[in-house]
């Protein structure tokens, strides 16, 4: 991930990864089919760490919207703080190689678990449905931002708008 953070998608070369990790190129290819797999595995790990940290701290906020918005703001801030890395990760996420499907599904699953954890067990709220829709908004917003179609700060803005539209300001005791 450091190579992608420093130089983007093109900087991640499997031979260089093997050298930096001090392992053989064959060892790298034993675990990853290519750089898309490698980058997506890193993304799965990053989102998983974020999710576990949020679950252990429990999202703050009285309403579903406040909890989910807080988590998404934190995640968007982390993403926008590393534009070169996010560009590399979004490029990898956009691969059409069927071999990367498992990693792409794992990324999607971790993102949805992150949001469901923030929503909590909320009567009257389809947490999985909200997470699925907001996940689509997240991917679109990040893709637009790293592609130069949207300004910095737009990812958080899009996520918060989606949350407001989907769950409004439902208070935990009201839903």
Question: What's a quick, concise take on this entry?
Answer:
By secondary structure, the protein is mainly α.
Describe the structure.
The chain is built from nine helices and no strands. It is mainly α. The chain is elongated.
Features of the shown structure:
175 residues; mainly alpha
Task: Give the secondary structure arrangement, pairings included.
Elements (H helix, E strand, L loop, with lengths): L1 H6 L6 H8 L3 H7 L3 H23 L6 H17 L2 H11 L7 H19 L7 H20 L7 H14 L8
Helix pairs in contact: 2-3, 4-6, 4-7, 5-7, 5-9, 6-8, 7-8, 8-9
Low-confidence stretches: 171-175
**SSE order, as H and E?**
HHHHHHHHH
Helical coverage, percent range: over 70%
Number of strands: 0
What composes the largest sheet?
A: none
Structural class: mainly alpha
Mean pLDDT: 87
**Rg estimate, integer Å:** 17 Å
Q: What gap, in angstroms, lies between the N and C termini?
A: 41 Å
Overall geometric form: elongated
Total count of helical runs of at least 4 residues? 9
Share in β-strands: under 5%
């Amino acid at each position: 991930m450091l190579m992608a953070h420093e130089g983007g998608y093109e900087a991640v070369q499997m031979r260089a990864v093997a050298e930096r990790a001090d392992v053989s190129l064959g060892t790298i290819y034993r675990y990853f089919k290519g750089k898309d797999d490698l980058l997506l595995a890193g993304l799965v790990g990053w989102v998983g760490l974020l999710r576990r940290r949020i679950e252990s701290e429990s999202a703050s906020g009285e309403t579903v919207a406040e909890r989910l918005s807080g988590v998404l703001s934190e995640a968007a801030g982390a993403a926008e703080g590393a534009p070169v890395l996010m560009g590399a990760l979004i490029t990898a996420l956009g691969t059409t190689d069927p071999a990367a499907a498992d990693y792409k599904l794992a990324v999607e699953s971790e993102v949805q678990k992150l949001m469901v954890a923030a929503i909590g067990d909320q009567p009257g709220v389809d947490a999985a449905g909200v997470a699925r829709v907001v996940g689509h908004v997240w991917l679109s917003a990040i893709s637009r931002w790293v592609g130069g179609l949207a300004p910095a700060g737009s990812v958080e803005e899009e996520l918060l708008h989606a949350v407001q539209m989907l769950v409004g300001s439902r208070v935990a005791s009201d839903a």
